[in-house]
Structure formats: C-alpha cells, structure tokens
Amino acid sequence: MEEDLISFLIGCSFSFESELIEAGIEMRHNTEGVNVPMYLTNIPCEPAGCFHGNMVVSMRPIPYDQVVKSVTITAAIPKVHGAPVHIGAPEAIGIHDLAHPDFGDPVTIHAGEVPVFWACGVTPQAAVMASRPDFCITHAPGHMLITDVKNIALKE
Q: What are the CA-CA distances from residue 114 to residues 38, 59, 66, 138, 141 (Å)?
C-alpha cells in the first residue's frame, strides 16, 4: 500500500444536462447516441505542484435563440461547471476541427446553431498526460462516478 497516494473526485458536465433538457434544449450527443465531443484547448490551467496543462472543454451545439437560456441555466449551477467558458469561434480557443474531437465523438451542428463550450472533467487527464507522473489511476472520459447527490443541491 502506498501511503502518499491522493484520491479526489472530478465533476462532469453531464451533471448540468438535465437542467438544459428540462428547459427544452437538445443535447445533440444524446439524440445521436454518442459521447459528448471534448477538445483540448489553448487555455492554460493554473499549475498545481507538478501538474500542468491546458483546459479540456465539452461542446454542445445550441440554437442561437437558446444560447442565453443555456448560459443562464448553467451559470446558476457553479458547482457543476457553471457557465460556458467560450461560445462560438472554436479557433479562438485552439480548436481547429470540430469534426475531430480529442475525446468523445463528433456531433452534427445544424444551420442556426453555435458551438458552446463548457469546462470538462477530462481536464485532469490532460494535465496527467502533459505532466507524465510515474503513476496515476483515472477514469475513462464519459464514465464518471455516480452519486445520489441531486442537482438541486449543487445550485448556488
């Protein structure tokens, strides 16, 4: 048994999706039966000890007329990733091809929709890959710990 191991739980953007769905906002990856697309960005994270790297974001295409509602809904849940970190113009955050996510699966973006990006719980894996520690145990993207904590308890 290693005495210097540390364990922690990482949030997942799937947690806020029920609020968006309840508001009538489609989650395209659910509709298409795939995992949410996730992209490594050029947004640096604050280093912590030996760990460093850039943020990973998950993307959901949102109709233009539902973007403000999506932001408002998710901003009210700061314990579950909060508001989007970026809206539109993926190249501004270092994403050059939405059809080829770094993790997860691509989804269709229809005319009249904009890509909306939220911070992603896969960011720690990106930090592990960038930092290359001698030993690490983690999860697979899209396969998170599930608890009985209700989303309502995660609002401000």
A: 15, 10, 10, 32, 23
Q: How far apart are CA 57 and CA 37, in angstroms?
A: 8
Contact 35, 13 (CB under 8 A): no
Share of the chain above pLDDT 70, in %: 87
Please identify which residue in the block is written with the tokens 């001698």. 134
CA atoms within 13 A on the CB side of 42: 7
- Please, what is the end-to-end C-alpha distance for the chain in angstroms? 39
- Give the model confidence (pLDDT) of 27-55 as tens digits: 999 999 999 999 999 999 999 888 899 99
